[in-house]
Amino acid sequence: MPPGDGPFTLAIDIGGTSVKASVLNYAGVLAAERIRCPTPKPSTPALVLESIHALAAQLPSFDRISVGFPGVVKAGTMLTAPNLGTEHWAGFRLIEALARRFEKPARILNDAAVQGLGVVQGPGLECAITLGTGIGCALFRDRHLLLHLELGQHPRASETYDQFIGQAARDALGPEAWNARLRLCIPEVLSLTTCDVLYVGGGNARNISFPLPENVKVVSNSAGVTGGVRLWEPELDQLFAGETDAWWPTRSGRAA
User: What's residue 57's pLDDT?
Assistant: First the structure.
């Protein structure tokens, strides 16, 4: 199938503030402008699914679904959702709920992992962090996903990183003090990961007002959507093996 054609992917980026979506062609090019809506409050699975459905209705047709989710995801099941409400999401099979609603195969990863897939270039060890409602983090080697880290929930002195530099901290402290805090955290992430390149994305990346080290690059928040097409690359098939195959007949997720 030549680049630029289908299958087309509905790519969803679920955040604590907004849910974003677009449709991408096989080469990862947007087939429609990215659209968004506020994340519903409370952020229950039923209400978030309704938001996704409303966004999808405004977009072109698609053959498969990719989702970046703000929490720990294992085998298509949500384990945590710190900024949506773990009490709502723990144990929820979002992968099945989406596939049944849209009658399309679905794949889901942590949102920072999806963001990183959209920006890493290789070679070497690369890290992607997202600055939004909470803080996401994922590591990659030679453009291949190694793992996502729950950096946002990791203690930093008397607070977690989410509490220290998340959206609530920026709202409470103002941009100058928030930047001062972030300036402390960037070297910590570089030291923790020893990465060759650190990519900084998420909605608050655009609010950075201090010079960054040469190996730290600010990237567009749109990567949380555009990275979704990479979830369907053959090299990731093993990662998702068994998640959809047991109940979805089109193993590759490609249009029949």
Answer: 97
pTM for this structure? 0.89
Distance, CA of 12 to CA of 99 (rounded, Å): 13
Instruction: For residue 26, give every residue at least 6 positions away whose Cβ sits within 8 Å of its Cβ, in sequence order, or none.
Output: 1, 3, 4, 5, 6, 7, 8, 229
Please tell me the predicted confidence (pLDDT) of residue 243: 63
What's the domain range around 185?
Answer: 121-218
Q: Report the sign of the C-alpha dihedral through residues 6, 241, 45, 101, in that order.
A: positive
Would the pLDDT of 251 be above 70?
no
Q: Report in angstroms the alpha-carbon separations of 101 from 86, 94, 95.
A: 22, 10, 10
Average pLDDT over every residue of 43-52:
97
Residue 245 falls inside a structural domain:
no
**Residue 130: which CATH number?**
3.30.420.40
Q: Give the phi and the psi of residue 121 in degrees, each rounded to 5.
A: -120, -25
Do 14 and 109 belong to one domain?
Answer: yes
Q: How many CA atoms lie within 13 A of 174 on its CB side?
A: 2
